[in-house]
Each structure stands twice: as structure tokens, then as C-alpha cells.
Amino acid sequence: MWKFISKIIFKVSGWKIEGDSHIGLKKAVVIAAPHTSNWDFIYARAAFFLLGLPVKYTIKREWTDNKVFGGLLKRLGAIGIDRRPKGMRDDQKLSMVEAMANLYKENDEMMIMITPEGTRKYVEKWKSGFYRLAEMAEVPIALGYLDFERKRAGIHSVYHPTGNYDQDLEEIMSFYRTVKGKHPELGVK
């Protein structure tokens, strides 16, 4: 059903999928960038359905446990994160990255979509959580994108972290400088 709805969204709005949907991975951190608009979620979610990639996204567990919205959110790929798993004291908490890394360890297949900017506003520097997650979970980073100027979406390539964050980030961002978000002035410079 979601793939059908995604086809309609792309057809009506004139968007197209680019590139190969067979990236050959069962596990990856999937960047969804640039993130400059609320529309990004709709187009990214639709693109991953059309690509046939089982991409998920994380939200607070309270949302997925919600009786009204929880079922819909889960069908759209939401995974509820509990940063205080059973057995931990009230004063203990996992970081979001640690909680997400546990998902990779607990599942044979796991692709989690992350917006490294952490906001729709312009930021000079991305948050490092996506990279730390890839390192901690020992998975590659898939460079997903939404190019509003060309109305194209896809996975550009797969990047394997080298451990040199600054160098790797520069290589990753060099691609995203070529991609125009809905509000290009808020994208990667």
C-alpha cells in the first residue's frame, strides 16, 4: 500500500527516483539530506518505499506506544527508542547513538534514516551522531538525497567510515553541496 501511495506522490509532484535501489546492504546508516523542509520526510519516506529499501527512522518510544498514532507511525517505519532499557536505574540512560547501535546488534537487517543537520535551519556543521553510529554499529553510511531543484531522489553511494571524521565528513559533504534542498539557502555550503 505505501509503495502505491508513494508512486502517486511522485507522479503527481513530478519527482523521479535516480540510481540503483540494489545497494547490496542489509545494514546501513542512511543519510537523508539536505534537510531544509517538513516536506523532506514525505519525499524521503516515499523514495525509500519506491526503492524497496527497508529504511526506518527513530522516535521516542512514547510515540510508537501511542494508541492513536503508534500503529501508523510504525507502518511508516518508526522505531520507538527507549533510552532507559529494562534493568537500568532511573539515573542511568543510554545516549541516542548507543540506543540506536543496539538496534543494529539486535537485528539481522537494519537501515536507519538520519538527518545529520538535526534541524531544518542552516547549520555550519553537521551533528556527528550519524558517523558515531556507523562506527559503533560497524555499518556503512548510505548517502540518500532529495534534490528539489531537479525533483530527484535516491541513494548516491555507500561510504565506509575510515575513522578520520573530519576527512570523511568533508568527502560526504562535497556530494551534498551539489544537492539542492527545498530551501537551498539552508543546505550544505
TrEMBL record:
GO MF, one example: 1-acylglycerol-3-phosphate O-acyltransferase activity
A Pfam family matched in the record: Acyltransferase
UniProt keyword Ion transport, yes or no: no
PANTHER family recorded: 1-ACYL-SN-GLYCEROL-3-PHOSPHATE ACYLTRANSFERASE, PHOSPHOLIPID_GLYCEROL ACYLTRANSFERASE DOMAIN-CONTAINING PROTEIN
Organism (species): Persicobacter diffluens
Annotated protein name in UniProt: 1-acyl-sn-glycerol-3-phosphate acyltransferase
Keywords assigned: Acyltransferase, Transferase
Pathway: Lipid metabolism
Domain of life: Bacteria
Domain Phospholipid/glycerol acyltransferase: 29-146
SUPFAM superfamilies, A to Z: Glycerol-3-phosphate (1)-acyltransferase (SSF69593)
Biological process according to GO: phosphatidic acid biosynthetic process
